[in-house]
Design brief:
2 domains; binds coenzyme A; 3% strand; Citrate Synthase, domain 1; mainly alpha; Cytochrome p450-Terp, domain 2; 372 residues; globular
């Protein structure tokens, strides 16, 4: 007997990619053959973005030129600043990024697919500026200068956010997190971006659609939802009591579980180590202890493991990042992966248009108004 179709394209191979392997045999994550462990030990986020855009690690001079280009592309055009200033202060920053991306597509349209790499580099460099500019304008009424002379996206963004350069530990923690979030095969937002690209639509439309898909709590929004959960609890015991009650009500615990990984999310161990380091450094033992207890309860009660979003929440909190910016940070990084997938889709394109199993009524006779 056929298994019932639970939808969600689970287990369906929907295309080919050379960019990433997720959980082959249930474990591991590689970008173009390099393990996530090596990348987060050895590489900078800029090297990883280069790898995804160009298919190979950069030489020293290629990396230096890439970094110079990204620095040059950080500025926000004046009409876009005006748009950002007019968005409500209560907007969710994901909506600000979605609007910023779309607006940039009108001010600086891709024009031709020959310009796609430029469009990707421009967006990668400019989106942290867009997020920070809107935030500082709405919270402090300040029109900040976003074109700072800083090499890394992590350092640039944290400086714009806090008004002073981060410590090297904080900069590297953010850098590692950006590497972890850069690419993940056919996840919902990447697949969305590829679907849009497959219609031969423009680069900014595909990216805007990707942002929309990432926003939901079952996908990128899980890091924010995890933080909202963790910060509710004053100590590990009360966290355990509440969690058991939530599980009893069959509520989902955000930051746990995964569609593809079966035993662990390889990104989680890496960000957990950074979360511990940052919580220790900040003297925030409660946050880490509560997080650890939630993990233990989920393993014991549900045999579920944390995904990348769970310990990202406490790590970002210790970096002084407002909770509503957690998912936007995911966007700033994933622009690299989405872009690479758009290039790949376009290089060998066929319209993505699956079929549906029909479960509606059989063909029937038309009813006139008086028969209904
Ligand atoms: N907390 C509690 N129960 C969970 C759960 C979670 N985080 N994730 C899955 N489950 C349970 C479901 O309730 C379901 O139980 P049931 O069979 O008794 O109804 C079962 O596990 C299967 O869940 P389902 O949602 O169908 O699995 P999926 O493959 O579609 O889901 C996720 C994958 C990631 C969407 C899912 O695990 C989830 O919603 N996690 C929380 C959101 C999250 O962290 N997203 C970020 C992913 S990187």
């Amino acid at each position: 007997m056929n298994k019932p179709n639970r939808g969600g394209l689970e287990g369906i191979v929907a295309g080919q990619t050379r960019l990433c392997t997720v959980g082959i045999d249930g474990v591991g994550l590689n970008y173009l053959g390099y393990t996530i462990e090596d990348l987060t030990e050895q590489a900078s986020f800029e090297e990883v973005a280069y790898l995804l855009f160009y298919g190979e690690l950069p030489s020293g001079s290629q990396l230096a030129e890439f970094v110079v280009r990204l620095k040059r592309y950080r500025g926000i055009p004046a009409p876009l600043k005006t748009i950002l200033e007019q968005l409500p202060a209560r907007s969710h920053p994901m909506d600000v990024l979605r609007t910023g991306c779309s607006a940039l597509g009108t001010l600086e349209p891709e024009g031709s697919f020959a310009n796609q790499v430029h469009a990707a580099e421009r967006l990668l460099a400019c989106m942290p500026s867009i997020l920070a500019y809107w935030h500082q304008y709405q919270t402090r009424g300040e029109q900040i200068d976003v074109e700072l002379d800083m090499d890394s996206m992590a350092g640039h963004f944290l400086t714009l956010l806090h008004g002073k350069p981060p410590s090297e530990t904080h900069r590297r923690a953010m850098d590692v997190s950006l590497i972890l979030y850069a690419e993940h095969e056919f996840n919902a937002s990447t697949f969305t971006a590829r679907i849009v690209a497959s219609t031969l639509s423009d680069f900014h439309s595909a990216m805007t659609a990707g942002i929309g898909a990432l926003r939901g709590p079952l996908h990128g929004g899980a890091n924010e939802a995890a933080m909202e959960l963790i910060e509710r609890f004053s100590d590990p015991d009360s966290a355990e009591t509440s969690l058991l009650a939530m599980l009893g009500r069959k509520e989902k615990i955000m930051g746990f579980g995964h569609r593809v990984y079966k035993d662990c999310d390889p990104r989680s161990d890496i960000i957990q180590r950074w979360s511990k380091k940052l919580c220790d450094e900040a003297g925030n033992q409660r946050l880490y202890a509560v997080s650890e207890r939630i993990e233990q309860v989920m393993r014991r009660e549900k045999k579920m493991f944390p995904n990348v979003d769970f310990y990202s929440a406490s790590a970002y909190h210790c970096l002084g990042i407002p909770t509503q910016m957690f998912t936007p940070l995911f966007v700033l990084s994933r622009i690299s992966g989405w872009s690479a997938h758009i290039f790949e889709q376009r290089a060998d394109n066929r319209l993505i248009r699956p079929a549906a199993e029909y479960i509606g009524p059989p063909t029937r006779n038309w009813l006139s108004m008086s028969q209904r």
